[in-house]
Amino acid sequence: MTYQPYPGLLARMHVILRIFQTAQILDKAAQRVFAPYELTAAQFNVLNLLADQEAGLRASDLAASLIVDPSNVTGLLKRMSRDGLVTDLENTDDRRQRIVALTPKGKKLWAKASRDYEACLKTLGDLLNDKERISTEAVLVRLLEKANELPT
Known about the structure:
- It is a single chain.
- This protein is mainly alpha-helical.
- It contains six helices and three strands, in the order H-H-E-H-H-E-E-H-H.
- The protein has a single domain (8-149), classed as Arc Repressor Mutant, subunit A (Orthogonal Bundle), CATH 1.10.10.10.
- It has helices at residues 8-34, 41-50, 59-66, 70-82, 104-125, 130-149, and strands spanning 57-58, 86-89, 99-102.
- It is globular.
- It starts with 7 loop residues before the first helix and ends with a helix.
- The mean pLDDT is 89.
């Protein structure tokens, strides 16, 4: 695909459309990577967030990190618990809050799936040199911050 710049307002709209297009393609690629492990992208994200958290995380913190409604996380965690990927830990500070951690099965599955996902991402990451990667990330962070200010 060759890059063709657009003038004025169309250029501003086009860059956002390119971001959407890229996100959709990356999402489909992630689905293909996770399919052999019978994982969704959301399930992988939970495993990934919990992978280095031996003490687990509060379900509300998971919801905030995943940028989803807590009720969606409840159903997601219920399915993952049923599949033996996560377990609840006792929260001695506040029994009303749910603490979730990976099971050994969840850790093993995360290790396999993350290896394949990292290989997929490396292919893309290798397209950019350090300067391009830093400037691209800076631009994306600015767009993300501004997007968070948009009316919902």
